Amino acid sequence: MTAQYDLTTKIIPYLDRHLVFPLLSFLSEHEIFPAEELIKAQYELATNTHMVDYIAHLYQQIHPGEEFSADFLKKREDAVATNARLSEETDPVMSVIQNPEVAQNLRQDKLQNFNYLKETFGVTPEQIIALYNMGQFQFSIGAYSAAADYLYHFRILYTQNDLLLSAQWGKLASEILSGEWDKALDELNKLKDFIESGLPLPAINAPATANAPGSAALT
To answer: Fewer C-beta neighbours within 10 Å, C or N terminus of the chain?
Structure first.
């Protein structure tokens, strides 16, 4: 395959930026574009995520020997602080719902489950929302398996509709990026059933940005 027939630049604008990384890795492995262009494209793509270690690695390849900017160091500090804050918010509820005895008491009814957790363990609606926020953040740092886990627990406990479709899209992307193809197919079928049900679609607040500025480096 040559760059003349490659369709990556046609596909990228329609994908979440995290789904573009595997495509760029494929191009790099097959040497379809110059290595320097691909590294720059990966760097541009990563800059609007919280994948700070990956960004640092790419920056050093593009600018060997140069110091990191103050903005980047601040970005890294913010990412560490955000992870710590969200962990503090989600650890209590995760420790409860991952308890096997608690899991046995959960039922299909989300409201019943939430009331049980609220009355027995003091779980709050804010803690359930924190699961979504943590899943979103884990996705942004490239921890896709963890993102899928948090979004799964959020989805089985959240009783409103406004964030559920967003969480489902996020879990689908997380399973794809984790290479969990059976789980990804299951999520895809759930989305298909929901869309074909004819129910009104809630506004989607996607777990990650859906643009890909790095594609410009491959033109």
So the answer is: C
